[in-house]
Each structure stands twice: as structure tokens, then as C-alpha cells.
Design a protein that fits this description.
Helix content is 67%, strand content 0%.
Length: 292
């Protein structure tokens, strides 16, 4: 396809399928909250990425390793991403998490201290040095974001779709509940709670840890394990309160504030990003409050 044909093809795709805007997402969010549903038909439709536009963006940037990784993450060509990135550790792990599980063995060799490549291992002994939980979701999200922007999505839509995308490592973690290796399960669960970028990572780690402790202490959790469960319960309440407060702030935030929020999620982590968004939204409201 010539450059002119590629441009015309992309133009027709854009004209045929309007891309979601900040207003579209806000209306869908309000409808979801009003109905009490986790998802509505409208909100689900907005999360469907136009793979034709993604493929066009990848074709227009054949020498950009990050955009090609983003395209692969969004359902595109993993072979192209691997070639462009020289099969570096991030791309190899993300490719494995996308279902090309043969790469897990290579990831174990390259980064044996990362627990994630060991999640699917059938080896009875996992190295004791494997203590870090890293699924490379942050560089993957940045790659998805750049690819979506190159595909024509707005700064807000690209960030929202990139950051809130499905986390493929979580089903692998949840499958550990069937594993008899409780020591490994606890190691994974606790590593997931060490300064995670995304709160969902911490919450899944908490659930895995509590479920494992309950299976290990069939006669009832006691002593230090009971104290640990209480600690986790208290922490979960803090997270749930923060999530609820942030949902209210999102309703009031401007598009620019939400773009900054998603940037902050990838830069400083979701928890700190939420607190910064709350502060940003409260400040104008406080300034409008008459002095007494």
C-alpha cells in the first residue's frame, strides 16, 4: 500500500467510526453510577479499541519500538514488536503474558528474581531469590498510550484506555489458589503488595494471602497470622474509602485534570495519583467558598 493509499484508508476509518471523547466517557460513567451496574452497554462500547486504526498506526511507525509494542498489546503483531525491540526483557515478558507462554522460560533465565515468569512454572522448587513481582504493566501502558494517540485517540481517551486495560497477570495469580505450593503463593501474594503501581495488584495480593492463610490454618487463623489478616482488612478499608472518594472527584474533574491523573498513575502510582486528583478538585471548590 502506497503512503497516499495508507493515508486515505486511515482517513476513511476515522470518518466512519467516531472515536470516544471525554464527554462520551463522562456520560457513560454517570449512567453506570445511576444504574448501579459495573458496566453498561455504552461503557463497554467505549472500551473497544479500533484495531484497524491501531494497525494503521503500527504501519505508519515501523521504526518505533514503543508504538509497535503498544500495537501488539492492543491485539496486534507480537512478532513485529519483538523484532523492533530486539526481544528485550519487557517485550518478552509482555509477549508471554499475552499467551505466548514459551517466552516465560526465557524470562526466567534473564530475570530469575522476578516472580511473574515463575507463575506458570511446573518446577517443584522456585528459586528463593525470586522475591520481586514485576509484570511490566507501566511500560506496557505507556506503549499502549502512545500507540492509541498515534491512532488518533485524544490524550484523555488514549490514557484512560491504556491505563485501565485488562491486566493479564491477574488471572495467572488467581490460578495459584489451586497450587499446593503455599510457600510460593504467600511469596507472590506479599510481593504484590510492595509499592504496586496499581491498587488492583495490591487487592488481588491481599485476597491471595488471606485465602492461603485460611487454607493453611484449617482450624482457624490464630496468632501472628490473625494479626496479619486484621492488618490487611484495615488496609483494604483504607483503599475502598479512597476509591469511593476518588469516584466522586472524577465526576467533578476537568479533562486536563484527568489527563494529569492518568499521567500520575504511571509516574507515581495509582494511590498517590488519586490523592493528587482529590487535592486538585478540592482546591477550586475551596476557593469558591465564601470566607467567614
Amino acid at each position: 500500500m502506497t503512503p497516499n493509499q495508507l493515508f486515505l484508508s486511515g482517513l476513511l476509518l476515522v470518518l466512519a467510526t467516531p472515536l470516544p471523547t471525554f464527554k462520551d466517557f463522562r456520560q457513560a460513567d454517570r449512567a453506570r453510577r445511576t444504574t448501579g451496574q459495573l458496566e453498561t452497554a455504552a461503557s463497554l462500547a467505549l472500551t473497544r479499541v479500533d484495531t484497524n486504526l491501531v494497525a494503521r498506526a503500527a504501519a505508519e511507525h515501523p521504526g518505533d519500538p514503543e508504538i509497535l509494542l503498544g500495537a501488539a498489546e492492543l491485539g496486534g503483531d507480537w512478532e513485529a514488536a519483538l523484532r523492533a525491540n530486539s526481544t528485550n526483557a519487557v517485550v518478552a515478558l509482555r509477549c508471554a503474558l499475552a499467551g505466548h507462554t514459551q517466552w516465560f522460560a526465557i524470562c526466567r533465565q534473564r530475570d530469575p528474581e522476578n516472580l511473574v515468569p515463575w507463575l506458570t512454572s511446573q518446577e517443584p522448587q522456585i528459586p528463593e531469590t525470586a522475591t520481586r513481582f514485576e509484570d511490566d504493566e507501566v511500560p506496557a501502558a505507556r506503549a499502549r498510550m502512545r500507540c492509541l494517540e498515534a491512532a488518533g485517540y485524544s490524550a484523555y481517551a488514549a490514557r484512560r484506555l491504556a491505563v485501565l486495560a485488562h491486566k493479564p497477570v491477574l488471572p495467572l495469580v488467581q490460578a495459584l489458589l489451586a497450587s499446593p505450593n503455599t510457600s510460593f503463593r504467600l511469596r507472590v501474594a506479599r510481593a504484590m503488595q510492595v509499592a504496586p503501581t496499581f491498587l488492583v495488584t495490591e487487592l488481588v495480593g491481599q485476597s491471595l494471602e488471606v485465602a492461603t492463610l485460611r487454607q493453611m490454618d484449617r482450624d482457624g487463623i490464630r496468632g501472628a497470622d490473625a494479626d496479619r489478616v486484621t492488618e490487611l482488612s484495615n488496609r483494604r478499608e483504607v483503599i475502598q474509602a479512597l476509591l469511593q472518594e476518588t469516584e466522586g472527584a472524577v465526576e467533578l474533574a476537568t479533562e486536563d485534570e484527568m489527563v494529569r491523573y492518568f499521567n500520575d498513575v504511571l509516574r507515581v502510582g495509582e494511590e498517590d495519583a488519586m490523592r493528587r486528583l482529590l487535592q486538585a478538585v478540592r482546591q477550586p471548590l475551596e476557593n469558591k467558598t465564601p470566607a467567614r
